[in-house]
């Protein structure tokens, strides 16, 4: 199914990355390391499309037009070859495949080099649409945001409950929720922390979360949990509802503004409606949005065991359609 690289000066016959077709059938096509070098212009800066605590991400455009996202990991931080390969094969197995997860299609071990191959998602991330793309937030109506929340929750449910061993994501955030050609949400970067040496996870906070998404209990002990993932997912729900970033710098006041604290304060003052994205108001969806706001606030509860499990989150989101509808509408759903 997958093949790893030999050492840097290894046999060219083994110098191949194998990755499965989208259908996941038996026919796999091979891509050589030289193909990847050529497709990324020798990992040029112009090919970089992302970065993070794990390394850089490059866009690889193959000769037949196929586009891949190639994640180049920091080799000094990764597991040794055999352990790395075992973990990657688990992450790329059928059990780790779901329509709301970005599939790992191939990998490469070549000396100290570690590459992971994913399909390229041309529609970018939820973060792009909400915060960076001009007009992106306006384009995402409530029904679009709800569909994204539902899809992402199902992806998280799959890694929490249906993978063996179960996977804690550790870094759920809007930039790790990618949109496919149909704008369906796909959760990216799940399981990457399992590829890192245990004594290297202190090197960057991105290996255990991103500021604004990190649950408060991680400040006492750097032990990632599924309840911690639920907290981070709750922050993403708040982003969808408010259209605001999890953390914003307020230069005039010389302080940092945090979304979770602001929403909590506004709710305590009974000003629930005011936290909703102004671009979503006036369309008759307020009841549904407030229903999801209640869920988001349960997810970001400071007490881990007061948070719902991800299965409850999925069920809550599936029930949103019944909110604000007449009994006749509910019958016809």
From TrEMBL:
Q: What class of enzyme is it?
A: transferase
Specify where it is mainly localized: membrane
Molecular functions per Gene Ontology: ATP binding; protein serine/threonine kinase activity
Instruction: List positions binding ATP.
Output: 72
EC number(s)?
A: 2.7.11.1
Q: Tell me the ranges covered by the Protein kinase domain, including all copies.
A: 43-317
According to UniProt, the reaction catalysed is: L-seryl-[protein] + ATP = O-phospho-L-seryl-[protein] + ADP + H(+); L-threonyl-[protein] + ATP = O-phospho-L-threonyl-[protein] + ADP + H(+)
Q: Which of UniProt's keywords are assigned here?
A: ATP-binding, Glycoprotein, Kinase, Leucine-rich repeat, Membrane, Nucleotide-binding, Receptor, Repeat, Serine/threonine-protein kinase, Transferase, Transmembrane, Transmembrane helix
Q: Which SMART domains match?
A: S_TKc
InterPro entries, per database record: Kinase-like_dom_sf, LRR_Rcpt-Like_S/T_Kinase, Prot_kinase_dom, Protein_kinase_ATP_BS, Ser/Thr_kinase_AS
Q: Mind telling me which GO cellular component terms the entry cites? A: membrane
Pfam families from the entry? Pkinase
Protein family membership: Belongs to the protein kinase superfamily.
Protein known as: non-specific serine/threonine protein kinase
Lineage of origin: Eukaryota, Viridiplantae, Streptophyta, Embryophyta, Tracheophyta
